[in-house]
Amino acid sequence: MPCEECRELTTHLFRGVDDLVNAVRLASEETERGVLSRLTTRELSNAEQQAVDSSLSSGALPHRVHFRFKCEVCGDRFTLSANPTTGEGGWTREGDDVPSPIDLNSPKDAAAWEETAMHKRPWRADFFERIAGEIASAPGPARILELGSGPGFLARQLLQRLPEVTMHLLDQSNAMHALARDRLGELAARATFLTASFKEPDWPDRLGPYDFVVTLQAVHELRHKRHALPLHRQVRSVLRPDGVYLIADHYCGPGGMANDQLYLRIDEQQAALREAGFTQVTELLREGGLVLHRAA
Ligand SMILES: C[S@@+](CC[C@H](N)C(=O)[O-])C[C@H]1O[C@@H](n2cnc3c(N)ncnc32)[C@H](O)[C@@H]1O
Ligand SMILES: [Zn+2]
């Protein structure tokens, strides 16, 4: 439970740069008052840390805003993380899920995501390639589950390149499934669309066993890294004993993301995969802030 001193510092998204500036101002006032203290973030390099420090004292925002604080009264920790140009981001009490700035269940946000995904990160194509290569090297017609399949970019590549595979596409967004159906066209004959949340305990019921579970840029949609281990365990439970989990997502740390509540560091991801029962965990590809692991 938050204490009297920090109870108004609630998890919320910023509506714009003004909210971000107000949050930085409030945090520095509370720091001066002795209620909050700054924690250093080991995800930042020394130079980035210096830029962050000087911005707190001068009020000028650095290239990337990412501060952590601790309430000196009750010990609760907070993250203030945002893009200073747009204000996109928010204030999170650590342990709370990190709110999402977009609603991927809405047709409008789903279409906007689809439209920009490949321009924003053209190197996603390298991930498609690598995932397809891994599946192609396995014998026999693979049964594949994709988690958070979205508009079907990866599914299209896999179904096109690997004529024998069949896929289950799991996503909680029917808006995304509609986009995927369009993208797949006739390839959809080898796909089954499942509308479910991979954050729920029961999604694995009656599914599997699969030869591969694949996922790209979706696991962080759990909205907090603490949910990753339970998900990895569920994935293990729907794989055949010799099945393979190919998981690609953003990571926290140099070259990657700053929010250490939402995103796992690479070592944390590997530890979570091992703890979930995967004994062979290998990094296959790291590019543009995304990392692909193979876990078996
Ligand atoms: C950022 S998109 C990535 C889509 C796709 N994997 C790609 O890379 O092109 C994340 C996807 O995960 C889905 N998603 C988010 N939370 C989910 C949940 N709890 N269960 C199932 N799908 C979810 C969203 O609807 C969206 O389609
Ligand atoms: Zn407190």
What does this protein structure show overall?
By secondary structure, the chain is α/β, with parallel strands linked by helices. It is built from eight helices and twelve strands. A seven-stranded mixed β-sheet has the order 8-7-6-9-10-12-11, with helices on both faces. The two termini are 40 Å apart. The site of S-adenosylmethionine (SAM) has 20 residues, from helix 3 and helix 5. The site of S-adenosylmethionine has 20 residues, from helix 3 and helix 5.
Kindly give the count of domains.
Answer: 2
How large is the share of residues in beta strands?
15-25%
Provide the spatial order of strands within the biggest beta sheet: 8-7-6-9-10-12-11
Round the mean pLDDT to the nearest integer and report it: 93
Give the oligomeric state. Answer: single chain
Low-confidence stretches: none
Instruction: Kindly provide the name of the CATH class of the largest domain.
Output: Alpha Beta
Query: What's the total helix number?
Result: 8
Which cofactors or ions or other ligands sit in this model? S-adenosylmethionine, zinc ion
Q: Tell the overall outline.
A: elongated
Sketch the major β-sheet. 7 strands, mixed
Give the strand tally. Answer: 12
Please bin the fraction of helical residues. 25-40%
Amino- and carboxy-terminal Cα gap: 40 Å
Radius of gyration: 21 Å
